[in-house]
Write a structure and sequence with these properties.
2 domains, 353 residues, 16 helices, globular, mainly alpha, MetI-like fold
């Protein structure tokens, strides 16, 4: 049984607040003057900012182009596909949350894990089929994808593809085979020593040249390939940190129970290592989500590229503050939401341990 702490009376909370304010902000004449001056400065900046937001800013640049910000030039008559995709994502999130609550109430969760592992790849295939079309649906070329839609697609696809590659690289770097360990170490250190913009340039220019037959690869696919190669190296280091935190006794106990090396990794080591690495993994995804803004340099109209395109409209020339403030707000909402989810997952896993 867990005993919940009794709620404190309002007078006690007020007293604690006064003690905290006196101890941290007003514990001397100098700190008191500094606190008052900073509060006055923050208040003045805040008042001027709110005055600009509500009286001077011209938000027509956002309201008129809201559809471009969100989905780019995706055909209007096909927007129902995006709503279907959103419904699938929400269904997966709801199922994952329900599975988490069920695992809290029951110690058996293997079958639900297997169901989720099967459902996610199927859902991804359905989502890309809905977005791109084909097999009964009208095709929507990727040059019509843009705005927040393209940013999310590139970030999610790059993370999903880079994660298993990063796990394999982390396991390879921990391997006792010199050739495998040397290859994985060289790849990780080489990629981490290069800037992302250079890797994206190589993916856009050199990827079609090194593949047999020199195929005409879509620009979005090339961008995802570059982000996967870059992200996998950093995810490998995140996972390796989790692997190194697992005591050797865990592996020895699993081997004593008769588990071979693959089963030991899959059932004992990796689940614990990935649970420990959740904050770093989510942090890397947040960084990748923001790094998609570099794709604007390659004429891909993701969120930042679409903002530049909207600012080129004659009636909205010079409206940089409104446009980039709105774009920054979108980035912040998604990044803060991911950070909040990460903290909740971390708290749940800490409770289970």
């Amino acid at each position: 049984m867990t005993v919940k702490p009794l709620p404190q009376p309002p007078s006690s909370r007020l007293t604690q607040t006064r003690i905290w304010l006196h101890r941290n902000l007003f514990n001397g004449w100098f700190n008191s003057l500094l606190t008052i001056a900073l509060l006055a400065l923050i208040g003045s900046v805040g008042v001027n900012f709110m005055r600009w937001v509500f009286t001077q800013a011209q938000w027509a640049v956002v309201t008129t182009n809201l559809r471009l910000f969100l989905v780019g030039r995706y055909p209007v008559d096909q927007v129902w596909r995006l709503w279907t995709v959103l419904a699938i994502v929400l269904a997966l999130a709801g199922y994952s949350g329900w599975r988490s609550q069920r695992k809290k109430a029951s110690a058996v969760g293997g079958s639900s894990n297997a169901q989720l592992l099967v459902a996610v790849p199927i859902a991804l295939l359905v989502i890309f089929w809905l977005l791109g079309g084909g097999v009964g649906l009208a095709r929507v070329p990727t040059n019509l994808w843009g705005g927040l839609l393209l940013t999310l697609i590139v970030a999610i696809a790059s993370t999903v593809l880079a994660f298993p590659l990063g796990v394999l690289l982390a396991l390879g770097r921990q391997s006792s085979l010199p050739i495998l360990q040397g290859f994985c170490t060289a790849y990780i250190e080489l990629i981490r020593g290069l800037p992302l913009i250079g890797i994206l340039f190589m993916a856009q220019v050199m990827l079609p040249l090194v593949l047999p037959g020199q195929p005409n690869i879509d620009r979005v696919v090339r961008a995802i390939a570059g982000l996967v190669l870059f992200n996998a190296a950093y995810q490998a280091e995140n996972v390796r940190g989790g692997l190194q935190s697992i005591p050797k006794g865990q592996t020895e106990a699993a081997r004593a129970l008769g588990l071979n090396l693959p089963l030991t990794l899959a059932l004992v080591v990796l689940p614990q290592a990935l649970r420990i690495s959740i904050p770093a993994i989510v942090g890397q995804f947040i960084s990748l989500f923001k790094d998609t803004s570099l794709l604007a340099l390659f004429a891909l109209l993701e969120l930042t590229g679409m903002a530049r395109s909207i600012l080129a409209q004659p009636q909205f020339l010079g409206r940089y503050a409104e446009v980039y403030l709105f774009v920054g707000l979108l980035y912040w909402v998604f990044c803060y939401s991911l950070s909040t989810v990460s903290r909740r997952i971390e708290a749940q896993t800490r409770f289970r341990r």
